[in-house]
Write a structure and sequence with these properties.
The structure holds 2 protein chains of 2 kinds.
Chain A (H helix, E strand, L loop, with lengths): L3 E4 L2 E5 L4 E7 L4 E9 L5 E8 L4 E4 L2 E6 L4 E6 L8 E9 L7 E3 L3 E6 L1
Parallel strand pairs in A: 2-11
Antiparallel strand pairs in A: 1-3, 3-8, 4-5, 4-9, 6-7, 7-8, 9-10, 9-11
Chain B lengths: L4 E3 L2 E4 L5 E6 L6 E7 L6 E7 L2 E4 L8 E4 L6 E5 L8 E8 L6 E2 L3 E5 L1
Parallel strand pairs in B: 2-11
Antiparallel strand pairs in B: 1-3, 3-8, 4-5, 4-9, 5-6, 7-8, 9-10, 9-11
The chains are: A mainly beta, B mainly beta.
Chain lengths: 114, 112
């Protein structure tokens, strides 16, 4: 059974700093990995999706990397801003045909200190 | 509407009551998912529809949980004889291409 872990559970950094969030998964037979953002009382917003054949994806100040063989992904946020404060979740989709569900980690709650 | 809409936003139920949670996906989205998110946890998969067909219900925790999407658009998640452990946020997501999911804001269910 796939298990997804995110460490740390919470992180506080001063505004302007660069930071890295970590995600690890136990079963490397994944189809893709996604990073989501969740604001309090809101649903999830997809930030980046990395296919299993890719090493990284970039969108603005965000960069996500994937090392499938070691079961790790990182989300790099450059020049952090107070608006980046949220919970960040990673989720994996397995590669077996017909299995469309995502397995989520428990998230990292990020606070950017102005 | 522009996004996935869920109603009600909040639901308080007495233990043993039946509840029905509604999801309006983005127009034209073929795939629809239900997830359950307990406090401080990541979402857990419940069930998945492609059009009106329920292709995967492996995540439904018991036979008290039932989901339907009869016309391939709006979906309802029904929980019978609610228990305290059913308290959670229920999230609905829809997708056109099965990769990028669009989530609603969820229904927060509290069972007293």
């Amino acid at each position: 059974k796939q298990e997804v872990t995110q460490i740390p559970a919470a992180l506080s950094v001063p505004e302007g700093e660069n930071l890295v969030l970590n995600c690890s998964f136990t079963d490397s037979a994944i189809y893709n990995l996604q990073w989501f953002r969740q604001d309090p009382g809101k649903g999830l917003t997809s930030l980046l999706l990395i296919q299993s054949s890719q090493r990284e994806q970039t969108s603005g100040r965000l960069n996500a990397s994937l090392d499938k063989s070691s079961g790790r992904s990182t989300l790099y946020i450059a020049a952090s801003q107070p608006g980046d404060s949220a919970t960040y979740l990673c989720a994996v989709k397995q590669s077996n045909f017909g299995n469309e569900k995502l397995t989520f980690g428990t998230g990292t709650r990020l606070t950017i200190i102005p | 509407g522009a996004g996935v809409s869920q109603s009600p936003r909040y639901k308080v139920a007495k233990r043993g009551q039946d509840v029905a949670l509604r999801c309006d996906p983005i127009s034209g989205h073929v795939s629809l998912f239900w997830y359950q998110q307990a406090l401080g946890q990541g979402p857990e998969f419940l069930t998945y529809f492609q059009n009106e067909a329920q292709l995967d219900k492996s995540g439904l925790p018991s036979d008290r949980f039932f989901a339907e999407r009869p016309e391939g658009s709006v979906s309802t998640l029904k929980i019978q004889r609610t228990q305290q452990e059913d308290s959670a946020v229920y999230l609905c997501a829809s997708s056109l291409a099965l990769e990028k999911l669009f989530f609603g804001s969820g229904t927060q269910l509290s069972v007293l």
